[in-house]
Amino acid sequence: MSNKIINKFASAKTYIETCDKYFLFVFIPSILLIIAGWYWGIFIAPPDAVQGDSYRIIYLHVPSSIYAQLIYWIMAAWSAIYLIWRVKLAAYLTKSAAFVGLLVTFLALFSGSVWGIPTWGTWWQWDARITSTIILFLMYLGLIALHDSFNNQNKADNLMSILTIVGCVNLPIIKKSVDWWSTLHQPASITLTDNPAIDPAMLYPLILCIVSFGFVLISMGVLVSKLIIFNREKNRNWVKNYG
Amino acid sequence: MIKYLSQEQTKLIYKSRAWLTPLILFALIMIAFPLSIDLFGKQTSDLFMIIIVISLLLTNYLAIDDILLEDYEDGSFEQFLTQNKSLFSSVLAKLIILIIYKALPLSLLTILFASVNNVDPFVFLDLFLISFFCQILFLNIFLFGSALGINKGGLLGLIVVMPIVFPVIIIFGQSMTLLQNNSSIDSFLLLSLGISFLITPMFSYLSSLILKMHLE
Amino acid sequence: MSNLIEVDNVHYSINENNLIRGISFGLKENEICHIQGVNGSGKTSLLKIILGIVEPTKGEVHRKENLKIQFHGHKLPFKGFLTLLQNLKLVLSEDELIDAQKFLEELDLHEKLNLRFSNLSFGQQKKSFFASKLVIKNTQVFVLDEPFVGLDDSTTKFFQEKLQERVNDGAAIIITSHIPISMPAKTINI
User: Fold this and answer.
1) What is the ipTM of this complex?
2) Could you state, in order of their start, the residue ranges of all structural domains in chain B?
3) Which of C16, C44, C55 to mutate to test the interface with A (most CBs of A within 10 A)?
4) Residue A217: inside a domain
5) What single DSSP character describes residue C94?
6) Interface partners of C (3+ CB pairs, < 8 Å)?
7) Cβ contact C34:C186 at 8 Å
8) Residue ranges of chain B with pLDDT lower than 50?
């Protein structure tokens, strides 16, 4: 009974219709806001006392690093929903989130490397955070590759959900072991946690960037999920009659 | 179960290529590594401990080979499923045979090369146990990976399980360092013994579930 | 007499494509079921559902408890690096092995027992595997997926006779075949 209700409200059709209705209301403001945030961060915020202008990449780096982890937890939640209530939409969303997560993790790694050149003098450092982020990147890659390896999509959904949840058990283990490893080896030269308290003039644009970046990612996820849903349900009548 | 074990044993023994490849590769790495290093002023015993985990990783990845793929492609798993409810006993038998016939000799080889490289004989037993448990974990994880990516080649499985492999590499690498510094690692060995016992049926079960999904 | 296998309104779909739409039939002892359909109509999937390898999307398959099924499909699970005899030893008990050797003698394959399986020709491989399936004792149901592909006419006839013997002894057969079979069978179209 409860399954029927959930499935009615969480059908892909309802989802697409709702998204179509509100998409532009999220997409346009989020684009405007992120442009504003970046403009504020790059041109208006004061330069850093130590790092000069190079620190300004945090307006890309920090949001993407935050969402790189967050998206994985969201995926894990959707996977749980799929496994417990068998809501197909949750599986579609898991896969679309994996694509967005892959992109964001790449952005985080890339911007971190670019930032590393002027500050650390090297674009790569075997720091605990970087290592766990590159592992996270591999996890997203693995999940996507795994899903594509199945002919039977329902089985692929099942397995991807299971592996996502296994991965979210694995995440803290990775974090702990990596921390242990890098602390035993050598202290990282600079970690973000040791940063001095950030100046409000830099902080406000950062918050703006984080929030608006979130909404940009949501709209991106919606677009990807739309592609995935249309592909998966292409034989359904509502897709044939769409648009 | 014993029937399956002896079946898998026969299959492995007569397939000498699969059985010998990891041993030979390991021996080659062990012979080759001192040659790649300028030994002046350094001791091979120190470097040996550093290189051991990563060479075990490589050889174990190779040891899994096509152990699942072959039975998947020639329909053996389908035959097995028609006689039994699940593939669990088949996969577990394969894993146990792998551990006995590949991980155990490799651990012995580790000791052999440890003595070649002037490692303190005092740590031989610890070294043997560490490399053995380390390989049990590797084999479990790679078996899981090769079950996941069975119809898309070994690389997919490797990518998917790499995040699980990294903590193992880190932890066992650290234990090697501890061993090198003559610290006691008894409690760690006990922990890995427990984990090995837990993880072997668990990963065989997971792998058998996944294989069944792939057969559909 | 109750059915050995009962297929009850089975549906099967992959990725929203309906392959099998509502098939029902029962299989009794001494009975042969010939499943017919064009290529890609889901014959192999139906067999896999009957075997329990694949779960049907809708409907159920009831198997009698402890039913002894033997399956002969497109793939030959004998290992190429083992000899024919070693392969047989892996899957057969001692009594069955003796039967199998007699059987292979009738097929003129007994001289090949100590050859590696990969060195046999495809027809010989197919024959020896089919023979190994037919000698397994206590089998109640044989599930055969295109068993006669690649076999010459006389061998096909020979195997059909052997199958008929097993059926007369109480076994049942589910078979798909494009090659017409001479055994009396009920036909199921999908």
Assistant:
1) 0.87
2) 2-25+43-215
3) C16
4) no
5) H
6) A, B
7) yes
8) none
